């Protein structure tokens, strides 16, 4: 299935379309009309016409069709002796005159069957030099479109005064591709579609297996790289002419798509924003890199930019974050437009509701992200803080200071808001950053990356944050242990394990979020219902949502268990039971306790007591976040001390396990490991330490000439 393309968001605003169909599409073998293809094209244009689109057709094919008809007539009227003589090339103008009437007759017949009126407009290059002609052309076409008439344009080759009408490329237009581009500009079209006999523009001849389809043409990158094949077998243009016309129209402000006319549904796909053919757009250079960078280039550039970032004053680094927050709010409409394409693609692909929910960027979420970035900016500068100060010897002072890690590689799930949080944390902590988000959020990630990097001043450079767009680049990045300092994979245990097994770079693992809420026999019932409901329902797809509810066995007797179950089921939560709960509550048995639902579903099990709950958590949990609900302080302290998870709560929802809610500003993830950082990883988790020593000429000299004091010096606030 074709993907929605972030760069094709303009398609939803299209009203007036110019469609150019090439000779190779109009005609089949021997120059005869390709009736099936033309019929399908007419049906598609008729449907667009009835849907309210203003359709203008530019059709080639008259010369090829006329040549076929005249050759046939010549054959019929020739004697055997005549056929033995050398055959002269038929006059192109005569072919155009004969073919045009046949071509138009076919269009009229087809459109009549579809209850659509078509009109023929033949134009010459010289006509466009006349201002009055151009004014009249606009008025006539407007009247036709208002009447739901489809104008069909062609160059009037039969009476053209061009010196060599099939070779000359001078003048205002020189073939039907350039005519279509001219008409798109003159008639103020919203989109130009050039239909060809190939899928689009390739890096080389389409028949070459090494040639690749170019989805978005970037003039600065592709114009010197492309090798064109032969011109059209029947017309006079070919791909060279199409590209020239497309570039001219695109850089004048008209989006252009070159795609195959052999697939009847391609026009519809273009208008739905699907990734078909090759797009030409004046902003194309902003959507993709002009030059290809290797994985090492990206990592080195991020390191160099991070050093420039660290060299700035604290106030300047803070100002970058303010600029990013402002840019997020200023670009809300653009961000949402790209995000809507991601969401639509995910829904078409049948992704689970919970995964689609992670993708959505609402105005409230964008506003919240901007607020979190500003809060991060207002926090104390984490870089260069003196953590410990020691007098090593008289006049020799040593400081332990906070310092950025260097370059981070973060692989994260299809959650666009995570990109903003991670990028802002990297900037606040002075780190370079390489990001690889889930493919489902490709367009959202791309626009957010652009908005953020555009807000970074040139003194630092947008390469501070690199966006990895292909999964194939990850193995190369994981080899760069000399350039990348830490990898943070957010996702499943499988992903974390794969990365750990394929890299020498330290890995800060964010594994599954199998979070538990244990409701003790000494609970406050109303509080328990609120906490259990919030932990599951506030954001079911989050990694800190409750996945297993553990209930003390005594709560079955006093009906509290039933109240908890009702609170969940009445809010649409699907419940699965452990061996005990499934029998007591008549629930389907859970296949595994080690399952993260990420949806409105969870497992319920009954345990003997707090020790049974702790044992269950240690055997089946992911060491993420676990909670106890109880009014017994001794049981609560026992649970808090003995549950070996990154975050352990008493009488509070697991949803509080979040960097922003902890006051960290944001988080890059929640680490379930035990080395370097644990729990929500904010700015401090992205820092290391270094030592600064200030002396007065001291030397070691075998420790003979120095008296060590090793006295702590108070750190000035």
UniProtKB/TrEMBL annotation:
Q: In which pathway does it act?
A: Amino-acid biosynthesis; L-proline biosynthesis; L-glutamate 5-semialdehyde from L-glutamate: step 1/2; Amino-acid biosynthesis; L-proline biosynthesis; L-glutamate 5-semialdehyde from L-glutamate: step 2/2
Q: Which residues form the Aspartate/glutamate/uridylate kinase domain?
A: 15-260
* Provenance organism: Brassica cretica (Mustard)
Question: What is the documented function of this protein?
Answer: P5CS plays a key role in proline biosynthesis, leading to osmoregulation in plants.
User: EC annotation?
Assistant: 2.7.2.11, 1.2.1.41
> What is the catalytic activity of this protein?
L-glutamate + ATP = L-glutamyl 5-phosphate + ADP; L-glutamate 5-semialdehyde + phosphate + NADP(+) = L-glutamyl 5-phosphate + NADPH + H(+)
- Domain (Aldehyde dehydrogenase) spans 291-558
Keyword ATP-binding assigned to the entry: answer is: yes
User: What PROSITE patterns does the record point to?
Assistant: GLUTAMATE_5_KINASE, PROA
What is the protein name stated in its UniProt record?
A: Delta-1-pyrroline-5-carboxylate synthase
Sorted alphabetically, the keyword list is: Amino-acid biosynthesis, ATP-binding, Kinase, Multifunctional enzyme, NADP, Nucleotide-binding, Oxidoreductase, Proline biosynthesis, Transferase
Similarity section: In the C-terminal section; belongs to the gamma-glutamyl phosphate reductase family.
